[in-house]
């Protein structure tokens, strides 16, 4: 807008045309002729090289500031209004020689003639419509109009010169008609004088034949298009007289009765809008009517059909109202530009429903006008009104915002208020919550973690967001790294892309992100929570080095690690989750226990037993030994066995005493104490382990080979676990459960220990194992979903030796607990009885109980392993990623490339893709994408194949080997066979024979080909027909071949199967089958 | 509540299968529009669905065409069996047959069907036999691939042979044409005093 525009004259019309063709033509209108377009919303954010800058709000409701900045954009702020106040309005039209514009102005008819002066070097003073003399002068020279003379650009000489290319000395395009010096003089003539009026004009230079050149003389060309309003307004401003349009304008009403809008006097700019609902009976569209008055006279009016069909008259009104607002915005800018003073407010009358009128809720009132029209003339800034209207349209009234918890003040003058939580759009957000941040134009919102929330003095709310990366976003650096489903990466390192400050309004919604890091500091989650989570992460992405890091230090970016990991249970919304549990069990504890001296022991425990469970809680050695015993009964037996340390034994003795005697201790206290005790035991164990590695190894040697490696894993986990207090004890169990679910290869972990225990047991000849304590393992296997809930329970059971009730509890709560568990607790009950009976043996029992338990569990496991399992819908089958996926072909291609695709054979023909996915889930605990290969004429009619795409190469590899080494049988079917995905067909591999063309003929027909009907029956007397018959023969032959092949295959397989199917299995299968059919 | 609807879906699907014909021996250039146009001559095509081909052993380009009625579908199969329909090229005719349920990759689930699986105990007496089946399956997969290869080779042979034939024929006709157009024929006719018919 600040650029000096080019002089355009009718003479050089061709120049204009060329300019329009010029790619650089920007279609820029002179400011006061510009159309009433709302400036686009701009998002104010910084950009970083790596990633997005701040996203903006999801909703379409623009924030008031985004719509229109303070003051109108149409008016440059830097330009003092006084500078042009003296200027009369100039009106100009680009015209060819036929063009004449007639404008009635008062009694006079003002004629704007656009004539082409031929070679006239008219030095006319600019004729302006304002000066009456000039109006009447015959040679009025409107062509002198140059739209750029918007008075803005002549203030600095540079711009002037820039816009005046032709007269620069040495300019190559100066024509013969004028010598440069003269031209230069002319330039000076063109400047405004002291009063600001223009004395000379340069247009004549162009008329004389100077041609300006793009890039040299000008850069922008304006197509001067005048809106009628401009003319009217201009006339209004110049010389208000009677206007042809009556102030009382009639707008059509649908009911036939005429209504008149009463013009209110006094205000400067006043607008009314109304609509007629569904006037057009053909397409049901309504009509919008808008009229704007300036100084009591209508300047803009429109009555136009609405672009879309609306459902109610109210909605139609919402459509009409903004168009009035739009008009008003533009008009305001225009008026401001002309008059130099900005309208403070614009009154716009809307015909709203009374209900809505109330909602506007400003201290303004409604005015009722004729015929039941409710005219809302809120004297508020119309922009705000407009926003309000828009908000109403979006039915987004819930965008409320409320600060909740303050955190503190900061900044230089303590003017910044920090917060911990707030409510936005009906959702409560807390510090360190994960949120979606929406950015326009992106298919997926960004994910970030709120690390700071504050409000500045100017009431702008800001959040600092630490980013997560989706794998797609950093695919460049991911390379071969495999990612889990829904895995994202936390930004680490420093610099660009780590975190950004964003307006709070950019938050699009909460996002459930959980950390599945195995890190001991990370509270582990239950499966249920994992299922609920939208995203997982355990790795970070260093934004500096652009690498994936598996480890997290104490600080990632500027964040403490404990804010990155999952929140501990106790810190969640239900603050003392743990204690609630405890209370539930109180009665049991009391029943079971009698007390004595224990209180003394308990006190220190309590002190340390912080419900929040600081990870640093770990090392309290003296406590450890003392409390060791209670845990002995429940924890990994293999380790305990070799801890034949006296110290431990004494501890055990004491513990058993305690167990029996805990009576009147407050149950809660008791409970707490128990929890604490868990920690130390492990610690002791570990110490033991370190000291006596040989014994340990021996132990392992006795166990199975496979078991061994697994066991190592468990033990490796141990030291980590030590650090944590009781919360971690819980989470450990969770973690185990997770492992069970995730890595079935690892599923023997628990068993392992069990086996080793049994061995040890047998050696000692103490007890024959029967009962299982390893509830964890088994339950997890059977009822994975509930693992997180149950396992802690079972833990507690052991501690308190209250098996009965608690197990019952857990059984109730889960419903899925199978008989094995019931058995186990039955047995433990017995044991408890025994324990009470014989004081001497208590100790042993408590120790051996676990051995037995685990022993049984191994049996159980083994049995379960080969049990028939019914494939149900896998738990998260319905959860599909809601951001869409690549097409299957593409996924398969990349899967083939990454070796994650497997071809499954021997599936029953009636399986669906979803069922295959279910089978894989149940058999391997892997989520996959399956696709049954559709049968074709050449594929076997008996069994189908399916392609599955796994998440990782490892998973695919594992499934392949497992399918290979072991046998996954489908009931009444065949063993499932997996082979790596064969090479994917690419475009060039498509080979199709049998379509012949004669080169010449094809060439001739090329053009016709597209249009020609491309199918036909061949006639029997052609060469084509003969050839077709040859193909037919070939087709039949291959058909026969395939049929025979498949038949043979089938027979062979059936033979083998028949031989292999023993009566026992068959009957069993039939049994199950019939049972299932009954269901 | 769900079950009847699932049943209905399945019934609708079965109905759809009956209305659908399976067409193969298609050129890879055949698009949906082409196929639709081709079969609209016989009836009204409601839907065309190509069976995706992913890898070489099942290099069959085929499509499922759903017609408006079962009768139409049957008629088309009959027609196309009797004579040879060329689509997007010649002389290899396309082949049509009734569609089978398994040809649809988006077939719905039979609601009462339940799947059960088990891992076979390696100590089980049949473990070896089952392993045998597995090996057989793999072998068969290889056989299928090989047969496909054979078929392709055969097709290629036929193709080449026919293209030779066609070329020869074309040459022949061109020669005849040339003789006619350049006046040689007339000369010869004059020379031998024979009457030439118009042409």
Automatic annotation (TrEMBL), chain A:
Compositional bias (Polar residues): 122-140, 1063-1073
Feature: compositional bias, Basic and acidic residues: 179-193, 832-844
Organism: Mikania micrantha (bitter vine)
Region annotated Disordered, chain positions: 38-73, 118-195, 684-742, 821-844, 1053-1079
CDD domains on file: RNase_HI_RT_Ty1
Pfam families according to UniProt: BAH
InterPro entries (UniProt xref): BAH_dom, BAH_sf
Domain BAH per the UniProt entry, residue ranges: 427-552
Protein name, per record: BAH domain-containing protein
Any one GO molecular-function label of the UniProt entry: RNA binding
Automatic annotation (TrEMBL), chain B:
Protein name: RRM domain-containing protein
InterPro entries on file: Epigenetic_reg_gene_expr, Nucleotide-bd_a/b_plait_sf, RBD_domain_sf, RRM_dom
Keyword Iron-sulfur attributed: no
Organism per entry: Mikania micrantha (bitter vine)
GO molecular function annotations of the record: RNA binding
Alphabetical list of CDD domains matching this protein: RRM_SF (cd00590)
Entry keyword set: RNA-binding
Residue ranges constituting the RRM domain according to the UniProt record: 19-101
């Amino acid at each position: 807008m600040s650029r000096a525009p080019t002089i355009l004259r009718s003479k050089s019309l061709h120049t204009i045309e060329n300019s329009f063709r010029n790619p650089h033509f920007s279609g820029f209108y002179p400011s006061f002729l510009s159309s009433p377009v709302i400036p686009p919303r701009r998002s104010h954010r910084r950009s970083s090289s790596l990633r997005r800058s701040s996203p903006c709000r999801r909703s379409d409701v623009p924030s008031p500031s985004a719509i229109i900045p303070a003051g109108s954009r149409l008016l440059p702020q830097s330009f003092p209004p006084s500078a042009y106040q003296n200027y009369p309005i100039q009106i100009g039209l680009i015209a060819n020689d036929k063009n004449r514009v007639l404008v009635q102005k008062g009694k006079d008819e003002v004629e704007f003639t656009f004539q082409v002066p031929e070679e006239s070097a008219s030095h006319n003073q600019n004729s302006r419509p304002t000066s009456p003399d000039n109006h009447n002068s015959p040679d009025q020279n409107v062509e002198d109009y140059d739209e750029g003379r918007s008075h803005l650009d002549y203030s600095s000489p540079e711009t002037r010169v820039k816009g005046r290319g032709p007269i620069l000395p040495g300019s190559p395009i100066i024509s013969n008609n004028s010598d440069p010096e003269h031209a230069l003089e002319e330039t000076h003539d063109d400047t405004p004088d002291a009063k600001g009026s223009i004395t000379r004009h340069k247009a004549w230079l162009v008329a004389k034949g100077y041609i300006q050149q793009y890039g040299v003389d000008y850069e922008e060309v304006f197509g001067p298009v005048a809106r009628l309003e401009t003319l009217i307004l201009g006339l209004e401003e110049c010389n208000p007289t009677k206007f042809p349009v009556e102030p009382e304008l009639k707008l059509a009403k649908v009911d036939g009765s005429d209504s008149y809008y009463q013009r209110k006097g006094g205000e400067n700019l006043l607008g009314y809008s109304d609509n007629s609902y569904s006037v057009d009976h053909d397409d049901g569209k309504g009509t919008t009517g808008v009229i704007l008055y300036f100084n009591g006279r209508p300047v803009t009016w429109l009555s136009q059909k609405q672009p879309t069909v609306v459902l109610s008259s109210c909605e139609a009104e919402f459509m009409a109202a903004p168009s009035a607002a739009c008009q008003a915005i533009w008009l305001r800018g225009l008026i401001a530009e002309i008059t130099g003073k900005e309208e403070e407010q614009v009154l716009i009358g809307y015909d709203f429903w009374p209900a809505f009128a109330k909602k506007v809720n400003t201290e303004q009132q409604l005015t009722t006008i004729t015929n039941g029209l409710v005219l809302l003339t809120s004297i508020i800034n119309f922009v705000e009104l407009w926003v309000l209207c828009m908000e109403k349209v979006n039915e987004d009234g819930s965008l409320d915002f409320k600060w909740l918890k303050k955190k503190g003040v900061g900044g230089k003058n303590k003017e910044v208020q920090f917060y911990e939580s707030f409510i936005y759009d009906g959702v409560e957000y807390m510090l360190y919550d994960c949120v979606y941040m929406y950015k326009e134009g992106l298919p997926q919102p960004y994910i970030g973690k709120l690390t700071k929330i504050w409000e500045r003095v100017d009431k702008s709310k800001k959040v600092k967001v630490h980013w997560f990366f989706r794998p797609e976003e950093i695919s460049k650096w991911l390379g071969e790294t495999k990612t889990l489903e829904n895995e994202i990466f936390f930004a680490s390192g420093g610099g660009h892309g780590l975190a950004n400050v964003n307006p709070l309004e950019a938050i699009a919604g909460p996002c459930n992100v959980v950390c599945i890091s195995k890190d001991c500091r990370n509270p582990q989650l239950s499966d249920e929570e994992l299922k609920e989570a939208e995203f997982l992460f355990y790795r970070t992405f260093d934004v500096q080095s652009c690498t994936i890091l598996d480890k997290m230090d104490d600080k990632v970016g500027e964040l403490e690690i404990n804010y990155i990991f999952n929140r501990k249970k106790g810190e969640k919304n239900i603050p003392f989750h743990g204690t609630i549990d405890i209370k539930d069990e109180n009665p049991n504890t009391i029943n079971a226990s009698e007390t004595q001296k224990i209180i003394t022991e308990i006190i220190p425990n309590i002190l340390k037993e912080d419900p929040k469970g600081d990870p640093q809680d770990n090392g309290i050695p003296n406590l450890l030994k003392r409390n060791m015993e209670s845990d002995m009964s429940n924890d990994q037996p293999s380790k305990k066995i070799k801890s034949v340390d006296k110290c431990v034994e004494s501890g055990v003795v004491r513990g058993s005493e305690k167990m029996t005697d805990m009576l009147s201790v407050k149950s809660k206290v008791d409970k707490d104490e128990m929890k604490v005790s868990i920690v130390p035991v492990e610690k002791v164990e570990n110490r033991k382990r370190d000291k006596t590695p040989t014994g340990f190894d021996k132990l392992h040697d006795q166990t199975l080979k496979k078991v061994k490696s697994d066991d190592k894993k468990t033990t490796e986990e141990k030291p980590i676990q030590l650090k944590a207090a009781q919360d971690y004890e819980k989470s450990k169990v969770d973690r185990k459960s997770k492992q069970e679910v995730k890595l079935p290869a690892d599923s023997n972990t628990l068993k392992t220990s069990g086996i080793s225990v049994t061995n040890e047991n047998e050696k000692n000849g103490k007890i024959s194992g029967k009962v299982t304590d390893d509830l964890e393992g088994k339950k997890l296997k059977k009822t994975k979903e509930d693992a997180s809930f149950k396992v802690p329970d079972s833990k507690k059971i052991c501690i308190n030796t209250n098996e009965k009730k608690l197990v019952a509890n857990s059984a109730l709560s889960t419903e899925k607990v199978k008989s094995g568990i019931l058995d186990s607790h039955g047995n433990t009950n017995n044991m408890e009885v025994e324990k009470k009976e014989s004081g001497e043996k208590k100790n042993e029992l408590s120790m051996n109980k676990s051995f037995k338990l685990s022993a049984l569990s191994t049996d159980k496991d083994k049995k379960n392993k080969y049990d028939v399992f019914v494939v149900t819908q896998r738990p998260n089958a319905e959860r599909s990623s809601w951001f869409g996926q690549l097409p299957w072909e593409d996924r398969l291609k990349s899967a083939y490339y990454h070796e994650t695709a497997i071809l499954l054979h021997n599936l029953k023909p009636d399986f669906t893709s979803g069922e295959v996915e279910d089978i894989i889930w149940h058999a391997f605990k892997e989520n996959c994408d399956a696709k049954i290969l559709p049968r074709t004429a050449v594929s076997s009619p008996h069994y189908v194949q399916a392609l599955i795409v796994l998440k990782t190469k490892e998973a695919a590899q594992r499934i392949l080997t497992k399918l290979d080494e072991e046998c996954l049988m489908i009931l009444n079917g065949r063993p499932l066979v997996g082979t790596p995905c064969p090479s994917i067909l690419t475009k060039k591999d498509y080979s199709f024979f049998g379509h012949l063309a004669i080169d010449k003929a094809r060439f001739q027909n090329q053009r016709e080909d597209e249009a020609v009907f491309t199918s036909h029956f061949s006639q029997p007397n052609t060469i084509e027909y003969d050839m077709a018959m040859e193909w037919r023969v070939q087709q039949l032959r291959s058909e026969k071949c395939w049929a025979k092949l498949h038949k043979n295959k089938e027979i062979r397989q059936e033979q083998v199967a028949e031989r292999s199917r023993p009566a026992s299995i068959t009957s069993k299968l039939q049994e199950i089958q019939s049972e299932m059919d009954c269901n | 509540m769900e079950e009847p609807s699932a049943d209905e879906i399945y019934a609708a699907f079965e109905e759809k299968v009956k209305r659908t014909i399976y067409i193969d021996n298609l050129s890879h250039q055949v698009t949906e529009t082409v196929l639709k146009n081709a079969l609209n001559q016989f009836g009204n095509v409601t839907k065309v669905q190509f069976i995706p081909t992913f890898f070489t052993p099942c290099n069959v380009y085929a499509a499922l065409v759903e017609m408006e009625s079962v009768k139409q579908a049957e008629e088309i199969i009959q027609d196309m069996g009797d004579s040879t329909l060329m689509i997007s090229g010649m002389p290899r005719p396309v082949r049509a047959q009734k569609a089978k349920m398994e040809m649809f990759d988006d077939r719905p689930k039979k609601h009462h069907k339940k799947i059960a699986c088990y891992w076979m105990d390696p100590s089980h007496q049949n473990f070896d036999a089952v392993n045998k089946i597995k090996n057989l399956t793999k072998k068969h997969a290889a056989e299928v691939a090989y047969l496909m290869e054979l078929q392709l080779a055969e097709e290629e042979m036929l193709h080449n042979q026919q293209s030779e034939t066609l070329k020869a024929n074309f040459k022949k006709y061109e020669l005849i044409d040339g003789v006619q157009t350049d006046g040689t024929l007339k000369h010869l006719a004059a020379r031998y005093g024979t009457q030439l018919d118009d042409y």
